[in-house]
């Protein structure tokens, strides 16, 4: 006799199967990456030179901050679209995100970085940050 499983349990099984299939995918090998892209990828790696370690660390930290800033911006836009915020909250979030964006540009300028420098190449997955 087959026991009927609740819908959420069946959905969890489907998700587990999809995850198992995803983890079976093999990453692209070096021969699958065009030469131009490979050269860009190698050029964008962090160097381990003691003279550049501070700048590289700043680059990594700013990359994470920019990723979080973009995620917060998307979440704020979603909440605005849903009508979850008052006008005052929308204004406050908007001005806060603009100030954060300006500070990011200032920090990048201080360390001779561009916002594009913060967009790490994740190989076959593409760039870390979506176009802003």
UniProtKB/TrEMBL annotation:
Alphabetically ordered keywords of this record: Gas vesicle
Record's GO cellular component terms: gas vesicle
Keyword Transferase included in the entry's annotation: no
One Pfam match: GvpK
DNA damage keyword on record: no
Compartment(s) where it occurs, according to its Swiss-Prot or TrEMBL record: Gas vesicle
A GO BP entry: gas vesicle organization
Family the entry assigns: Belongs to the gas vesicle GvpK family.
Protein name from the UniProt record: Gas vesicle protein K
């Amino acid at each position: 006799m087959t026991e009927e499983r609740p819908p959420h349990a069946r959905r969890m099984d489907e998700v587990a199967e999809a995850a198992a299939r995803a983890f079976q995918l093999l990453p692209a090998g070096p021969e699958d990456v065009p030469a131009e892209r490979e050269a860009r990828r190698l050029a964008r790696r962090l160097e381990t030179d003691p003279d550049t370690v501070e700048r590289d660390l700043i680059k990594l930290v700013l990359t994470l901050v920019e990723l979080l800033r973009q995620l917060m911006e998307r979440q704020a836009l979603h909440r605005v679209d849903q009508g979850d915020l008052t006008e005052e909250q929308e204004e406050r979030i908007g001005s806060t995100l603009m100030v954060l964006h300006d500070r990011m540009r200032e920090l990048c300028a201080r360390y001779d970085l561009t916002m594009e420098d913060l967009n790490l190449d994740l190989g076959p997955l593409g760039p870390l940050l979506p176009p802003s």
